[in-house]
Design goal:
globular, FAD/NAD(P)-binding domain, single chain, 21 strands, 3 domains, alpha/beta, 24% strand
């Protein structure tokens, strides 16, 4: 390694991508430093995937209590303690923070629990000192955006939702991305009245249209108030009794208004590059402030790389982890490594959950022209006794020219667990004939993916 520098790699940001890059680079003999101004593990561990999934689990118990009667169970008096849930969640996150610290130290990585900025292409400033480095990796992630509307200061983002002191009784969520949809399910499952406001015709832009429609129908069945094609015009304080006299009044652009204990904006996240010093090295940023990179995560500056949400590519934790490893292997493992961003599976932990891999129907038609579509909608076996009216929806998109399955989509219980397995098949180029030749596990919902025979009407 080059001894004229203090470090071989200085990583700014200790989230999923930054930690993985640091650990791998350290294990390959590089002298590595990582700076983190907030918390080890980044968004995912602290205010994202992990705590959110814990809250989703908590919310799902309300369904389990309701469904139990159909199976002969008598469930007695029950109550929910928000403060206990948050305390237990906080304890688990602290445990994970410690694990991340231990993993970094074991790899010989020096940790700076401070903000770091770029001085020049080979210099980082952190905690009042300057350090030279051969390579810089930007892994600063994203941060929630707040709209510029009157009263926006009365609202919170998903960051603050994980630390609320009390469970709100009436919640307004603004935004139709996966964060807004997931929190709508969380708060509703824990007993709140929920209104979700979205400016588009339907939420979850970028997902398959049939999937979006199916999920919207299921959420409305549960009593979640979905208000599409409208925006919040302004927010005012109100003396909402259920909020201890400190609620909000939400006024929409159609002139309607309603009271809420809490309003949460989930209207997008911005790449965390402001104040980083990108302009000092003429680092190229996209229109949304993300770092522009090539297939190997190299920026417009030869020795500066970027991974994860800060690049505005695929904003998913496993993708950031893969990108971080690839950069470390490329720089110190004597082999160029790039990440394949095609066929990345994803899930929305809504209620019911949604999962998808590959192309949507519209994307496939645009790319291939002729496609075959297979759909299945049914009442899950569990709900024949629970009495719940929930439906499961599944869909396969097939390239007609070669019979290859290019898209797989599902709304229903265990969707993420099921689609994860199917993602392997799609990544391997499985055909519809191979799906058909696979014997299903009975009785399961998953078997439907290998028993769909009738093509849907064009």
């Amino acid at each position: 390694m080059a001894e004229q520098y203090d470090f071989d790699l200085f990583v700014i940001g200790a989230g999923s991508g930054g930690v993985r890059a640091s650990r791998v680079a350290g294990s390959l003999g590089a002298r590595v430093a990582v700076a983190e101004e907030h918390y080890l593990g980044g968004t995912c561990v602290n205010v994202g995937c992990i705590p959110k999934k814990l809250l989703v689990y908590a919310a799902e118990f309300s369904d389990a209590f309701e469904d139990a009667a159909g199976f002969g169970w008598s469930v007695g008096e029950r109550s929910f303690d928000w403060r206990r849930l948050i305390a237990n969640k906080n304890e688990e996150i602290l445990r994970l923070n410690g694990i991340y610290e231990g993993l970094l130290l074991q790899a010989g990585v020096r940790i700076f629990p401070r903000r770091a900025t770029i001085v020049d292409a080979h210099t980082i400033e952190c905690a009042g000192a300057r350090y030279s480095t051969k390579y810089i990796l930007i892994a600063t992630g994203g941060w929630p955006m707040m709209p510029r509307i009157p009263g926006a200061e009365l609202a919170i983002t998903s960051n603050e939702a994980f630390f609320l002191e009390r469970m709100p009784e009436r919640v307004t969520i603004v935004g139709g991305g996966y964060i807004g949809v997931e929190f709508a399910g969380i708060f509703h499952g824990l007993g709140a009245q929920v209104t979700l406001v979205h400016r588009g015709k339907i939420f979850l832009r970028g997902f398959d249209d049939d999937l979006r429609t199916a999920l919207a129908a299921e959420m409305r069945k549960r009593g979640i108030d979905l208000r599409f094609e409208c925006r919040v015009a302004r927010i005012e304080r109100s003396a909402s009794p259920d909020a201890g006299g400190a609620g909000v009044r939400v006024i929409l652009d159609d002139g309607t208004a309603h009271e809420s204990s809490l309003i949460m904006f989930a209207t997008g996240r911005a790449a965390n590059t402001r104040g980083l010093g990108c302009e000092r090295v003429d680092l190229m940023l996209d229109a949304a402030g993300g770092v522009v990179v090539d297939n190997y995560s190299r920026s417009s500056v030869e020795n500066i790389y970027a991974v994860g949400d800060v690049t505005n590519r695929i904003t998913l934790t496993p993708v950031a982890i893969a990108e971080g490893r690839a950069v470390a292997e490329t720089l110190f493992g004597k082999r160029a490594m790039r990440v394949d961003h095609a066929n990345v599976a994803s899930a929305v932990f809504s209620q019911p959950p949604l999962a998808t891999v590959g192309l949507t129907e519209s994307e496939a038609r645009e790319k291939f022209g002729a496609v075959d579509i297979y759909k299945s909608e049914f009442r899950p076996l569990m709900h024949t006794l629970s009495g719940r009216g929930e439906r499961t929806f599944m869909k396969l998109v097939v390239d007609r020219a070669n019979d290859r399955v290019v898209g797989c989509h599902m709304v229903g219980a265990a969707a993420a667990e099921i689609v994860q397995g199917l993602a392997i098949a799609i990544q391997c180029g499985a055909t519809k004939a191979q799906f058909d030749a696979t014997i299903g596990i009975h009785p399961t919902a998953a078997e439907e993916f290998v028993t769909m025979r009738e093509k849907a009407s064009p």
